[in-house]
Amino acid sequence: MLAQKIEQPVRDVVYRTRGRAGGGITRLASPSDLGEIIKPFVFLDRFDLDGEDAPMSLENGWHPHSGIATVTVVLEGSLQFAETTGKEGVLPAGSVEWMRAGGGVWHTGAGGPGRVRGFQLWVALPPELENAPSASHHVMPEDVPVEGPVRVILGAYGAARSPIVSPPMSYLVVTLEDGERWTYQPPARHTVAWVAVQDGALRTGSRTRAGELAIFASSGREIDVVAEGATTFVLGSAARHPHDLVLGDYSVHTSPEALRRGDAEIRRIGAELRAQGKRSYALARY
Fold it and tell me: What DSSP element (H or E) covers 164?
């Protein structure tokens, strides 16, 4: 009898959403909904600012976080930023901001001139980091590692490894031509996986269009996609975060005590910002 090749079944998409849009920002996942399914990835915004509205004030946008890291990927245009880590500057197209809020941090941002597009992701931190000192790492476009069609934001792909030190996970930006096929084999124990499409569309057994988040079935099986049109998307994969999500207004922790510690540090930093004359809705609450 001749041996026959048995093809692996397509890894199913179990949830697909276009999120909730408000202005130029679409919330695709929040800690209180899909974050429970895809944790440690607990929040994902897709932003598309057309530059026609009055620019946001950097000084009036201060807001706090604790227990998480934020990961901002700029795909088009530029973003200004400032943080209580002491860092500030401009993120051009192709750059990445990793800001580990840890025990507490405040930051602010504003779109540059013209159209600005990209994604902001929140990552739930493990207990040993959720109340650690805050830190940030900004990677300019020329320093983002590339392997074939993939830009590596977090983790590794092939021989390319991100310069950002993060908990074990993968976060990739993938660009494909029309009809191009790409297969991703997640690292060991990465049973959580999802894609969010920026431009074009993907066939992943079914069709995922621009603006949609698709969550794959929990599995270590490979993900196989085919591009429809010139397509750009982000992909995240990781081992499932084994902790509860204990939620604050701007924070995600693993226990009520860790959240209390984060809130106390946020209030302390907020008082310093208020003394400096910084104003925002978040400062009014804290």
Answer: none
Give the C-alpha separation, 124 to 38, whole Å: 10
pLDDT in tens, 10-39: 789 999 999 999 888 999 999 999 999 999
Dihedral angle sign, alpha carbons of residues 204, 206, 208, 209 = positive
Instruction: Find out whether 136 and 90 touch, Cβ atoms under 8 Å.
Output: no
The label of the residue with tokens 């779109």 reads 111
DSSP state of 250: S
* Alpha carbon separation from 253 to 124, 135, 243, 265 (Å, rounded): 7, 17, 9, 14
Contact 79, 99 (CB under 8 A): no
Virtual torsion, Cα 93, 147, 241, 188, nearest 10 deg: 180
Which residues partner with 98 through β-bridges?
71, 137
The SS3 call for residue 284 is helix
- Give the ranges where the chain is alpha helix by DSSP (H): 35-38, 127-130, 256-275, 281-285
Residue 101 and residue 69 in contact, taking contact as beta carbons nearer than 8 Å: yes
Q: Do the beta carbons of residue 189 and residue 239 sit within 8 Å?
A: yes
What digits encode the pLDDT tens for the residues 61-110?
A: 899 999 999 999 999 999 999 999 999 999 999 999 999 999 999 999 88
Kindly report the pTM of this predicted structure. 0.93
Number of CB atoms found within 10 A of residue 159's CB: 8
Phi, then psi, of 38 in degrees rounded to 5: -110, 10
